[in-house]
Design a protein that fits this description.
23% strand; binds zinc ion; globular; 8-stranded mixed sheet; alpha/beta; 434 residues
Length: 434
């Protein structure tokens, strides 16, 4: 039994935002007591959360764990350790591993290794197409049976509209969602940065906003045509947000996510050919960043996901155009998201929706994203006032490719609990479990 005592418990799924104690037992949330109470005669392990926030464990619906195949960049153990340090208790990992997760054996391997050795629950996302080649559909029935949480070719777009149509029709049978890396590769072509003034001046070939927007529009129309569920990944442009808003207004079952870097950074960071500012979709302009913030404020964007993409120095310390896309994000997502509260439009409860309840809902992860009685005992204790520096030597990911190294951040996960087991702790007197 574990008692988390006297914190501000914020759980939008049950409409709770009040000071109280959460009691965990046998891997589940057993009870909630208001104020600073403990059950009568309680002798068990206690975490004092006074002055802190107690939230359902965060759910990252978009990470790359690089396992199997690229374990020198990251593996399921190091990736989930970084997740736990960032306050995450569940992560959904993309299929662009080696071998690609287009086979039930790969799906089962990821689930099993996550269960046995991981510091977060790992939900494998299987490939839409065999080998991510965009030609032939994977066997969705087999993959769903093996435990695929969703389908995505992320890393690559599904360029063929007919394949996307068929995929959306097929997943209806399993009530699963297609996660779409929305990009028209014929428009992004050899681009390496947002097509705008900065890239132009630096002589970097551009990726137009339209390469993403055309694909988002297509995906929305195909969702309308098929009735299949689509979720747009890493939305980075103003029109992308507007398209999603429009789709929702017309009642379509379309959802979308953005990543902390798209509401924190702009393409101004490309100065000096900073390869830690290179990602796909690319960092956009200030107008896009403001539109993403608006989409987070007004409920258009459903989730914040990291697109945690570990890369070793070898593929980042090179010429900008040749550098790999992506940045790590699991350990910085929470403080970067807490900044959203400063404007007063995003409430703490809305933030929990974005980081926990909604992604759990989109992926239909039973028992996740809430502190209701009977839910999984996945909890994060957050100190919203903690000030800290994100230093390279402290990064728990195997890869260190972050543009936020050296940043002074505010707010931090000080204890993370997965199924009742403490997977991360910065609190004195509270040791993490092995
Ligand atoms: Zn992507
Ligand atoms: Zn990705």
């Amino acid at each position: 039994m574990l008692l988390i005592k006297g914190g501000r418990v914020i759980d939008p799924a049950s409409g709770r935002d009040e000071t109280g104690s959460v009691i965990l037992e046998d891997g589940k949330v057993r009870d909630f007591l208001p104020g600073n109470q403990a059950p009568k005669g309680f002798q068990g392990r206690t975490i004092d959360a006074s002055g802190k926030w107690v939230l359902p464990g965060l759910v990252d619906m978009h990470v790359h764990l690089r396992d199997p195949g690229f374990e020198w960049k990251e593996d399921i153990v190091t990736g989930t350790r970084a997740a736990a340090a960032g306050g995450f208790t569940s992560v959904a990992c993309m299929a662009n591993t080696k071998p690609v997760n287009d086979h039930p054996e790969v799906t089962r391997y990821i689930r099993l290794k996550g269960k046995r050795e991981g510091f977060a629950d790992v939900f494998p996302v299987a490939a839409v197409s065999k080998g991510l080649e965009g030609k032939e559909m994977s066997d969705y029935a087999e993959l769903a049976e093996a435990g695929a949480a969703a389908f995505s070719d992320d890393g690559k777009p599904v360029a063929d509209s007919l394949l996307m149509r068929r995929a959306l029709e097929y997943v209806k049978a399993f009530d699963l969602t297609i996660l779409s890396h929305a990009e028209d590769p014929s428009l992004s072509a050899e681009g390496a940065a947002h097509e705008g003034w900065t890239a132009h001046r630096l002589g970097i070939p551009g990726i137009p906003a339209a390469s993403e927007e055309v694909a988002i529009a297509r995906d929305i129309l195909l969702a309308k045509q098929t009735g299949g569920k689509i979720h747009i990944q890493h939305i980075s442009t103003k029109v992308g947000v507007a398209l999603l808003r429009m789709a929702k207004k017309s009642g379509l079952r379309v959802t979308g996510e953005t990543a902390p870097h798209y509401f924190t950074l702009t393409d101004a960071l490309l100065e000096g050919y900073n390869t830690n500012a290179k990602m796909n979709p690319p960092l956009r302009g200030e107008e896009d960043r403001m539109a993403i913030l608006e989409g987070l404020n007004d409920g258009t964007i459903d989730a914040i996901a990291t697109d945690h993409a570990p890369h070793d120095d070898y593929v980042k310390r090179c010429e900008f155009i040749a550098a790999a896309n992506g940045i790590i994000g699991l350990e910085t997502a929470l403080p970067l998201s807490l900044v959203l509260l400063a404007g007063g439009k995003v409430t703490p409860s809305r933030l929990v929706e974005l980081l926990s309840a909604n992604p759990a809902g989109i992926l239909k992860l039973a028992g996740k994203g809430t502190l209701r009685k009977g839910a999984d005992a996945d909890v994060v204790v957050v100190d919203p006032e903690a000030e800290w520096e994100y230093r390279r030597e402290d990064v728990l990911s195997k890869s260190k490719n972050s543009p936020f190294l050296g940043w002074k951040l505010k707010g931090r996960a000080v204890a993370t609990i997965l199924g009742g087991r403490v997977t991360h702790s910065l609190l004195t007197g509270v040791a993490a479990d092995a």
